[in-house]
Amino acid sequence: MLKLKRVLQEVGRPQSALAESLNLSSAAVAQLLNHSQWPRSLDCEVLQGRIRVFLNESGVNDADIASAFEEVDLPCANTTDPAQMNEPSGEDDAMLLPKQTLLPITRRAFNLTRDPFGEFSCTQDMWVSPDIRYVREVMFQTARHGGFLAIEGESGAGKSTLRRDLVNRIAENNEPVLVIEPYVLASEDNDTKGKSLKSTHIAEAMMAAVSPLTKPKNSPEARFAQLHKVLKESYAAGYRHCLVIEEAHSLPIPTLKHLKRILELEVGFTKLVSIIMIGQPELSVKLSERNADVREVVQRCERVTLPPVEGARLEEFLAFRFERVGKPLAEVIDASGLQAIAERLSQPDRRGGREQTVSLLYPLAIGNLMVAAMNLATQLGVPVVTADVVKGV
User: Fold this and answer.
1) Residue-range domain boundaries for the chain
2) Which end is more exposed in the chain, N or C (fewer Cβ atoms within 10 Å of the end residue's Cβ)?
């Protein structure tokens, strides 16, 4: 961004005043300040001269005027606050923007009583594409009838939402399925970076869920035999058992191998436990067919990937989100803005010597970019989000 933006903030002059003085659109000025993109239709030196006149009339000192067109690496005030920029999370980095908050002034400008990208309050708030519907149903059938399933997806693809939906769906349908979710706080694949999730921890979680009043045995062998016994008793009472592990990409290799042994707990031909692992793409590396250490797991595990939102699904997703808060999409963003979002969240990549485009059009990324664009549109006084506004974020 240009130092000019900070200079304007220091003297209390809004971007809109500069835009009016230069006879340019607010979006064009935002592009100039945030991304150093000069309007192609105007001579750069002439435009700089007009800006210097504006700064001089605004009381800016000569030193700041002389350095106003220098590029600086500072956070963009339109998209986030300094606290967010100082400590970005790893998840937000992959989504290009940190977590965005819909400002109160933006809500009033767009007449929104609720954040369309906020937390779900019911199942009906969950957008379901054909791809998501398939993954959702595979998870449900695995929980009901058994199996070994790995759900892989980028950060923000909706994995945690599907897990919550599974638990909620089982409860609403009164399915005789006990969902067992070991705690994965600070879970890492080795004890140097954090605390690894071991098979003994999983066994403890299963015992606590299936037979909470039973005191676990001391030795590992006796404890696993005890677990097998209570699983048989629970099955005889009419229950199925589904082990759901989030952040499965952080599982150490030994624990992955032990999951196969948990899967083999059975009575007759009936498996007593179904397993659903949910993780980021790193999970696919650990479950690679070339990894001899987990070949027994790979041969038994079905893998499903959550894809990005592609093509016309982007408009469908946004229309659904705003419909849930009673707002037509056309009153928030136009066709050029939708196209700009699709382009902004697509990145060129070169793998295997070939150029290709990597899509980051996942629900979390789309929501963050849309909220940032709405906040900027309100700041600029633009009634709907356009391509220029999206590019100005």
Assistant:
1) 1-74, 80-127+309-393, 130-305
2) N
Residue-wise burial string across 344-374, b where 16 or more C-beta atoms lie within 10 A, e elsewhere:
bbeeeeeeeeeeeeeebbbbbbbbbbbbbbb
Q: Which CATH architecture has domain 1-74?
A: Orthogonal Bundle (1.10)
Question: Which uninterrupted H or E stretch holds 65?
Answer: helix 62-66
Pick 85 or 181 by higher pLDDT: 181
Q: Looking at residues 28-44, what average pLDDT do you find?
A: 78
Alpha carbon distance 51, 67 (integer Å):
12
Q: How far apart are CA 343 and CA 361, in angstroms?
A: 9
Residues 6+ apart with CB under 8 A from 160: 246, 278
Contact 234, 269 (CB under 8 A): no
Q: What is 130-305's CATH topology?
A: Rossmann fold (3.40.50)
Contact predicate 1/72, CB 8 Å: yes
Q: Long-range contacts made by residues 319-324, C-beta under 8 angstroms, separation at least 24? A: 320/127, 321/116, 321/117, 321/127, 321/367, 322/116, 324/116, 324/124, 324/125
The answer to whether the CB of 239 falls within 8 A of the CB of 177 is yes
**Beta-carbon-side half-sphere exposure of residue 132 (alpha carbons within 13 Å):** 20
pLDDT in tens, 302-342: 999 999 998 789 999 999 999 999 999 999 999 999 999 99
- Helix and strand counts by DSSP (H, E) for the chain: 19, 9
Mean pLDDT of 252-272: 89
Per-residue pLDDT tens over the stretch 88-125: 433 333 345 778 889 999 999 999 988 999 887 778 88
Specify whether the CB–CB gap between 179 and 244 falls below 8 A.
Answer: yes
Instruction: Please report how many Cα atoms fall inside a 13 Å half-sphere around the Cα of residue 327, on the Cβ side.
Output: 21
Please state the rounded mean pLDDT for residues 147-165. 92
Note the pLDDT of residue 166.
95
Residue 350's pLDDT is: 57
